[in-house]
Amino acid sequence: MTENNDRVDPRRSEPMSGDEARDEIGRGAPGRDAPPRSGPATGVEELRRRAMALGFAVVALAILSLLFAIYWQLARPILWAGTLAVLFYPLHRLVVRGLWGRESVAAVVSTGVLLAVVIIPSVFVVISLAGEARDLWPRLRDGIGPGSFERMARLLEESRFRGLAHMLLGGDPASGAVALQAKLQDVALGAQEFLLQRLKSVTRNVPSVLLQVGVTIVTFYFFLRRGPVWARGVQKALPLERDHASRLFDIAAQTINVVFRGVLLTAGAQALAAGLGYWVAGAPLPVLLSLLTFLAAVIPVVGAAAAWVPVAIALFVSGRPEAGIGLAIYGTLVVSLLDNVLRPLIIGRGMKLPLLWLFLSILGGLKLFGFLGVVAGPMVLSLALAVYRIYQEGWTEATEATRKLGPPRVDPTAKH
After folding, report:
1. What pLDDT, on the 0 to 100 scale, is given for residue 293?
2. Amino acid 409: pLDDT
3. Coil, strand or helix at 305
4. How confident is the model at residue 325, as a pLDDT?
5. What digits encode the pLDDT tens for the residues 170-196?
6. What pLDDT score was predicted for residue 4?
7. From CA 297, how far away is CA 300, in angstroms rounded?
8. What does the pLDDT read at residue 254?
9. Around 319, how many Cα atoms within 13 Å sit in the side-chain half-sphere?
10. Residue 130 class from Cβ within 10 Å (0-12 exposed, 13-18 middle, 19+ buried)?
11. pLDDT at 277
12. Of 47, 144, 245, 411, which has the most beta carbons under 10 Å away?
């Protein structure tokens, strides 16, 4: 039997002889594992590759920074659009199913719902608030009644809270009720001036406000249309494991829903109920007082009672004890009780955040983002806690794996 030393080269039609195959292996045949090259050429290529990677990183960072600076000019309307899109997305899916999968038409309908439920009522509230703020002091004085401030100042002067009242309102305790009445009037006039300045700034910047509202509406529409696709793309681009990136996005969406449904909707219901009570009791400036109730209900620890209790006391002191007592009973049994009933019902078993850090995140968010900070602050807090938990889980898994491996074994025969 003849020994077959022929090898087949895939680039040749005829087999190679044994000598040709041995020569080919010695030279490092193409298509086979050739020994790595070394020397100056390899070092130059590696240096060139690293320089190209560094240059690409610099160019990419410059472009992304410029893009971020451009979009930052419209950060608030974009954030508002994203927040509202997450909130309205379950309703949008129902509209899509009702329209047999026509995404574009469903997005238009959902945007119309946003206009009817959020934007148009907000415009009417701002207009009503402007009308009340313009005549705040005269309407407050006439609503409480003549001599009410003097009577209120006299009661404070004769109560155990005399020193505290003068410390908060300013003035000399020896000056009596007249000075305290003047301070109360100054506080009311200061609040009127503050509201008028804010409303004037809005009216002076009407084109800017309209632009931001328009950007919010248009961006909301496209977020409903393409938001899920964009979110999946961002998840893939994040330098995280897929499960971790998905968890962060889920937590952000859950926080938006919890804050809006559990905090803002509950506060809105309390403000509406309190506004009805203010109107029935004959309190002046019911729209402004409802807005104050809403803001107080949004902030943890404070609550809606911080608004309706002073109003009830003012009505009682102003010579209308029936209205003051009735408002106090209504506020206790209806307004404040709504928080205990609606919040667990709406949120269910939603995420729970530490009360202190939630309170601080809302205050810091309000200072940084304005009213949007009510949502942005808790969302950033929940994401930070999620990142901490992911890190903690990874550290625990690494520690457990190290423990199972045991201490490193040392070869006693090894030479050092």
Report:
1. 92
2. 58
3. helix
4. 92
5. 655 555 556 666 776 777 778 778 777
6. 46
7. 7
8. 82
9. 10
10. middle
11. 93
12. 144
Phi, psi (degrees; rounded to nearest 5) at 350:
-70, 180
What CA–CA distances, in Å, run from 180 to 141, 170, 302, 315, 402?
Answer: 15, 8, 26, 18, 71
How far are the Cα atoms of 80, 213, 219 from residue 83, in angstroms, in the given order?
5, 14, 11
pLDDT for position 32:
47
Distance CA 322, CA 377 (A): 41
**Which residue type occupies 342?**
L
How far is C-alpha 208 from the geometric centre of its chain's CA atoms? Answer: 23
Tell me the C-alpha distance between 391 and 385, whole Å.
10
* DSSP state letter for 249: H
What pLDDT is stored for residue 21 in this prediction? Answer: 47
* Residues whose CB falls within 8 Å of the CB of residue 327, separated by 6 or more in sequence, listed in order: 277, 278, 281, 283, 308, 311, 312, 315
Instruction: Check residue 247 and report its DSSP letter.
Output: H
**What's the longest Cα–Cα distance across the chain?**
129
Token pair in block for residue 389:
């938990």
Q: Which of 113, 123, 77, 85 is nearest to 216 (CA)?
A: 77
Residues of the chain with pLDDT under 50: 1-11, 13, 21-22, 25-34, 416
Q: What is the DSSP string of 64-120?
A: HHHHHHHHHTTHHHHHHHHHHHHHHHHHHHHHHHHTTT-HHHHHHHHHHHHIIIIIH
Residue 112, both tokens:
């119309």
Where would I find the H helices in 348-372?
Answer: 355-369
Distance of CA 29 to the CA centre of its chain: 62
* Both structure tokens of 250: 């889920």
Phi-psi region of 303 (alpha: psi -120 to 50; beta: other; left: phi over 0): left
